Structures are given as structure tokens and as C-alpha cells.
Amino acid sequence: MTEQVMAAIDGSQFSEEVCDYAAWASLVLQAPLTFLHVNDNHLPPQERNLSGNIGLGSREQLLAELASLDEQRAKVAQEQGRLMLKEAKERAIENSVSDPASRQRNGTLVETLEELQGEIRLLVMGKRGETAHQDSGHLGSNLERTIRTLHRPILMVTGAFKRPEKVMLAFDNSKTTRKGVEMLARSPLFDGIPVHVVIVGAETGEHRSQLDWALKTLHEAGHEAEGAIRAGEVEATLRAYQEEQDIDLLVMGAYGHSRIRHLLVGSTTTEMLRKTTIPVLLLR
């Protein structure tokens, strides 16, 4: 099965940005682009109080009418999804993507993506979905569950498309971020883009050795790269470096697997995603 760039769209405020970043990634990676829309039939139904002094026949009639309304809602949702996918494909074609595909599924987004992840080279999603509160500090629950479930790179989009000109890798010498360095070194997604490797921690010989390895790997692949070791709280330190260096894309490892690593790293990941104003490429 051909691995592709897959863009999850749902009519949220980020859908256009998801389309644009997905089109950019598809072109640069020379990978097929597929737009995905999932009609979530698992949303909890509205509470229906059918008690009271109505007769059995009336109650059965009401149930039938409610069932008919549910069916109509499902048809409307399906048509809305079809139109969304059509507009997304047209937008991608305007951005020079040839023959983008689309898929519409019923179910939950996370379960659908888990089923399709063998086909995914890169998943592009918005920071929040259509049903999430629009507060800029809020992180969509679908995004968080997807990151924890999928074992594919996920590009989280936060705003209008801007072709990346500087990339920052938050490096902690974990297996995931070492793979991230190697991925950055060989991926056409970052050709010609300067890479900043940042370790948050004390200036020690071990950290300096780790940073030197990362920079050497990137330099040998032909990348312009520089690094820094900064002490401080992880999220605030990375955000300060991003603003100082005018970074426009962040690469970092996602949630860890073990319970201890989840407690230590998971909260940092969530905090970074909640507060960031630039796209984040999450690695597993």
C-alpha cells in the first residue's frame, strides 16, 4: 500500500490551513494526498425524556419521529462531508497537487485513523476540531487521542499556511528524537531549511556530546544546522528560543509509552501543543 499524506478535515476553523499544509507536504514529499472526513456516529445522543402521561401509541409515534430525525441528520452530515471533501480537493488542485483523493467514513476519527495508519506517511490535523471550544488555549481531544494512538508522524496545524524557513528540533537524546534527527537529515520536507537543535537542561559534557552528534548528522546530510543548550522549564525555554530565532516549525517527540515517561513527558507535550502558535511535527 502506497504511503500518503493524509489530511483530516471536519469543517473546523483550521480546515483550510490543514488543506494548505497537506498540499505543501504532498508536493515536497512527492507523496499522494488524501483528504479524510469522518462522520462520528458515536456522539452521545441528546437526552430524551419520554416519561410522563402520554399513551403507549403516542410514545411509539414519538420514537419513530425521533428515529426519522436521526436518519435525516445522518444524511445531512454525509452531504456536508462530501461537500467539504470536494472543496478540499479543489483547493489542493489550486495549490498544484495533481489528482488528490478523498475518503468519507462513518465511525470515530481515532479508530478510523488507527485502521488506516499503515497507509499514512504523514498525518495533518488542526489544533482543534469542529466540536471543540474555540478558546486558543484549548487542545482538541481528538488530536490528543490520535497522537497517543498513532505511530506515524503528525503535523499539527495552528494557523494560516507559511512555508517553513526555520525548523527547531526539541532534542532530549531519546530514541524518538534521535530518529527525529535522522529523519530531518534525510527528509525532502526540510531540504534547504536551517535546523536548530535545542536541548533543555544544564550545560554538561553529556549534553554537549549529544548535541554534537545531532549537528554532525545534519551537517553530513548537507543541512545548515546550529544548536543550543538552555537551562529552564521545558515549555517556556523552547517557546523563548522559538521567538528569539523566529522559528516557524517545531519538531518534537510525542507522548512516551511507560507510565513514568507519560507523567514526565506527556504533560510537557500537551502544554507545548496548547500554547504553541506555530505548526508542530510530532514524532513517535
Automatic annotation (TrEMBL):
Gene3D superfamilies (alphabetical): 3.40.50.12370
UspA domain residues: 1-157, 206-284
Query: SUPFAM superfamilies, alphabetically?
Result: Adenine nucleotide alpha hydrolases-like (SSF52402)
Pfam families, per database record = Usp
The family annotation for this protein states: Belongs to the universal stress protein A family.
Q: What is this protein called?
A: Universal stress protein
Taxonomic source organism: Vreelandella zhuhanensis
